[in-house]
Every structure is written in structure tokens, then in C-alpha cells.
Design goal:
The chain has 20 helices and no strands. The chain is mostly helical. α3 runs antiparallel to α10 and α12 runs parallel beside α15. The radius of gyration is 23 Å and the shape is globular.
């Protein structure tokens, strides 16, 4: 557990810092691209497609790599080399095909006037897919520092390039046009977001040179077949899983008679959903540390009590993150431009969906450890069907609020199904009573946040802080005695 906490802390700090830095682009984008322009909707729509393609190209090989690298009868280096060959070959094929049919693909996505947007993101997603395997190797080798360093470098570089193209270049174009007129186009603002991403994805490759050398790149067809067979169901529920997260953003412009109106609403929904940053960061950091931890522990024997404890603490701190975001909404709302504030009502709903997503991720290890990954595909298909159906049915009437509730419904259904079937296939004694008490306490405190109306922002924030500290005090009293915390505990002995 100490190992899990340490790695989660490192991944968490880098993820939190990285996501926070990346999140600074939201006020930049919403400031430069007014809500009525639909520009941020275009960005959200294109990135939704790239998220789906990234899952397709990685083919579930991240999880497959961890599974086979931790098998006693396999050589980790051979598993790693074959993972690289498979994902790299698939990504290269994808780039070649897309570039040959670039204009038809752009028209299909309804960007016939901007095949450059599509072309840039094709290369970006191919590079990112390939780099997922070296990133997984760093996690396997327990090198979170280098992992975090590369991630942060990419994010900081991307931010600087965005600032250059979206703020500095327009200023120079006005005051000293000769310095930038040879490459800068004032009407290409959305395009420069993709240009920045492309540059940083290409530069990031150089950091993986040590992880790409010293291996025998020889295809082991027997191993490859086994890995593909194991990873394919993971690919299926990975595809459907990412559709659960992005399908609303992909189909949104098609759900309105006026495509521009769809892009405007999508921009507002996407921007305000970013306020739920903390929950997504916490889930991601936990996943980075938990996946290699679980597969590694599985070699040592049955550790179901450890999995139950990890679930409980994940749930507790998810609720704490929820209360923190909702309690400080008066401050967090300034992270998006005022003309996007109308969408802030979806933040609590989006965070609820993130909590279900995290719980489902914790539950998912029963079918990964038993090699019955087809169950993940079944659950993901069900969740996607629920989300897609509710979006098509309700979004034209209720807009982005319906999208947020559709995500809650989809993840809620598959979480319940995974728990019920998992308890039959790989029973784990989760502390449901203790978790229910935390849920009820968080619900009461959340209701007080909503019901108690205090005019003064300062006093309102102080009141919310007290409510959050009540939750923290209960955690410390019930499950996290201060004397047990490293460094801090020495002051309470």
C-alpha cells in the first residue's frame, strides 16, 4: 500500500500540476474564441475524434503489456518490443491511409474547408499512440519521475506555443507586422491550437530514445498472437469506454438543425466541464499507479483485502474532491470566460459521472485478473448504448445538461453490472457500509452548500471551507489517524 501511495503521489502531483497548467489554456481559448463563434466547439469536436482513434491505435496493448510482462514465463523486454512493433506498425498504416484519403475524410467529418486540421491531428494521434507504449514501460520499470517529467515538458511547451500563437503573434501583427507576417495568419486561431500540439508531440519523441534502444526488434508471432487475443476485448471496451466520454462531443453538431448552434453549445459544455478537473486528475493519477500495482501484486498471491482498501480510499477522496470543487465554485468559475458561465450547472453532474467512472475502473480488475476481458467489452457496449441513446433522445430538447446526465446514467449502469457479476466471478469484500456512511455525509454537506444562501462571497467561502473541513475531520478520525501518516505522524507520537 505504501508503494501504491508513493507512486500515486508522484503521478498525482505531475498529473495535477500538468492538468492545472493545461487547464490554463481554457481561459485562453474561451477568451480568444468567444462562445458565440463556436471555435471552442470545433476544438472539442476534433479532440473527441482523436481520443477515439488513440484508443483504436493503442489496441489495448498498454494493459496487455503489463499483463504479459508480469507473467513468470515471459521476458519483459520481448513483450515490450512486440508491443512497440504492433502499435508502431498500426499507427504508421493509419497515417498513410488517412493522408491518401485526407479530403474525403475531412468532408466526412464536415471540415471540408480545413483538411489541414484533420491532417495535423492524424499525425498527432499516431505519435501519441506509439508513445503510449514507452510511457507504459516507464510505469512498469517504476520510473515515475521521468514519466512525470516528460508529461510536464509536453504540457508546458504546448502552453508556451499556444501563448505565442494566440497572444504574442496577434500583438506583434498589430504593432510590428513585419516580424510575423511571413508565417502568421490572424484568421487561423483554431488551427494554431493544432499546430502547437503537433510540434510538441514530435519533440516528445526524442525523450524516448533510451527506451527505444537496446532491444531485439524481432516479432515473436506466438507471443504477438496471445497478446492480441488478450488485448482485443480491452480494445473493444476501450473504444466503447472512450465513446462513453466523447460520443456526445462527436455527435453534438449533428443533433441540431443548425450545426453552428451545436458547436456553440458544445463549446460551452466542454469549457465548463473542465471545472471538474480535480476529479479527472485524481482518477487518472490513481489509474497510472494502480494498474501496474495490481498486476504486480497478483504475482505474489491473493490480495483482495488490498483491492477492497484501495476502493474505499479512492471513494473517500473522490467525495472530498467533489465537495472541494463545488465548495469553491465561486473562485473556479473564473477559469472560463463570463460568456461560458451559463454552463456551470453541469459541473456537479460531470463530477458524479467521474466518480462512477473511477469506481468502475476499480471494479474492472476482476475480469482483467481472471483473463475474462470480454466482460469489459460487454459492459462498455451497454454503457455506450445508454449514453448514445439518451444523447440522441434528450439533447435536442435539453441541450448539454442532458449530455451530462447521460454520462451519469451510462457509467452508473455499468458500475452496478460490474459489481454484481464481479462478486460472483471474483468476490471481493468491499466495505460497503463504511462507504455508504461517507456518501451520506458528503450528500448532507453538499445539500448545505446548495441550500444555505450567504450573500457575501467571502463568508460563503468560509462557510463552505468549514463544511469541507468537517468531512476531512471525519476521514482523519475514522480512517486516517494522523499518527499513521509519514512525517506528519511523528508530531503526534
Amino acid at each position: 500500500m505504501k508503494s501504491l501511495v508513493k507512486d500515486t503521489a508522484i503521478y498525482g502531483v505531475s498529473s495535477i500540476l500538468g492538468r492545472f497548467l493545461n487547464y490554463l489554456l481554457v481561459p485562453l481559448y474561451t477568451g480568444v474564441l468567444p462562445a458565440a463563434s463556436g471555435g471552442y466547439g470545433v476544438v472539442s469536436n476534433v479532440y473527441a475524434y482523436t481520443a477515439l482513434i488513440l484508443v483504436l491505435l493503442t489496441f489495448g496493448m498498454e494493459t496487455g503489456f503489463f499483463r504479459f510482462a508480469n507473467k513468470k514465463d515471459e521476458q519483459p523486454e520481448t513483450v515490450y518490443a512486440n508491443s512497440l512493433l504492433f502499435v508502431g506498425g498500426l499507427s504508421l498504416l493509419f497515417v498513410v491511409v488517412c493522408m491518401i484519403f485526407l479530403h474525403p475524410v475531412s468532408s466526412l467529418l464536415e471540415y471540408p474547408d480545413h483538411p489541414d486540421y484533420v491532417g495535423m491531428m492524424v499525425v498527432v494521434v499516431a505519435l501519441d499512440a506509439f508513445q503510449c507504449i514507452p510511457f507504459a514501460y516507464l510505469r512498469y520499470k517504476k520510473r515515475p519521475i521521468k514519466f512525470a517529467g516528460i508529461k510536464l515538458f509536453n504540457i508546458i511547451g504546448n502552453i508556451l506555443l499556444n501563448l505565442f500563437f494566440l497572444l504574442l503573434c496577434p500583438w506583434l501583427d498589430t504593432h510590428a507586422p513585419g516580424t510575423v507576417s511571413w508565417f502568421y495568419r490572424p484568421d487561423y486561431l483554431v488551427g494554431y491550437i493544432f499546430v502547437s500540439n503537433l510540434i510538441m508531440s514530435a519533440v516528445q519523441m526524442f525523450f524516448f530514445i533510451p527506451e527505444l534502444r537496446g532491444f531485439s526488434y524481432r516479432v515473436d508471432w506466438t507471443l504477438m498472437k496471445r497478446m492480441v487475443s488478450y488485448s482485443f476485448p480491452i480494445l473493444i471496451f476501450g473504444v466503447v469506454g472512450i465513446l462513453n466520454q466523447t460520443v456526445d462531443k462527436m455527435i453534438y453538431p449533428f443533433l441540431f438543425d443548425d450545426r453552428q448552434e451545436g458547436l456553440v453549445q458544445l463549446g460551452i459544455y466542454s469549457a465548463t466541464s473542465k471545472v471538474a478537473l480535480i476529479m479527472a486528475v485524481f482518477t487518472q493519477a490513481f489509474r497510472y499507479a494502480y494498474e501496474p500495482f495490481v498486476f504486480g501484486k497478483n504475482k505474489e498471491g491473493d490480495n483482495r483485502a488490498m483491492y477492497a482498501a484501495a476502493m474505499k480510499y479512492f471513494f473517500i477522496f473522490s467525495l472530498l474532491a467533489f465537495l472541494a470543487v463545488m465548495g469553491y465554485m465561486d473562485l473556479l468559475k473564473y477559469m472560463v470566460a463570463r460568456d461560458y458561465w451559463e454552463g456551470l450547472s453541469v459541473v456537479a453532474i460531470v463530477m458524479g459521472a467521474e466518480i462512477f467512472k473511477g469506481i468502475y475502473f476499480n471494479l474492472s480488475f476482476w475480469y482483467k485478473l481472471t483473463d475474462e476481458t470480454q466482460w469489459g467489452a460487454y459492459f462498455s457496449l451497454i454503457g455506450c448504448a445508454v449514453i448514445l441513446a439518451l444523447n440522441i433522445w434528450l439533447v435536442p430538447m435539453y441541450g448539454y445538461v442532458a449530455s451530462a446526465w447521460a454520462s451519469v446514467a451510462g457509467y452508473g449502469v455499468i458500475t452496478i453490472l460490474s459489481f454484481i457479476i464481479g462478486q460472483k466471478k471474483y468476490p471481493v469484500s468491499y466495505p460497503l457500509k463504511e462507504m455508504t456512511v461517507y456518501l451520506l455525509l458528503a450528500a448532507v454537506l453538499f445539500m448545505l452548500l446548495l441550500v444555505v444562501d450567504i450573500e457575501s462571497v467571502v463568508w460563503r467561502l468560509l462557510f463552505h471551507t468549514v463544511l469541507i473541513l468537517i468531512f476531512v475531520a471525519y476521514i482523519v478520525w475514522r480512517d486516517l489517524p494522523l499518527r499513521s501518516i509519514p512525517f506528519i505522524g511523528r508530531f503526534f507520537r
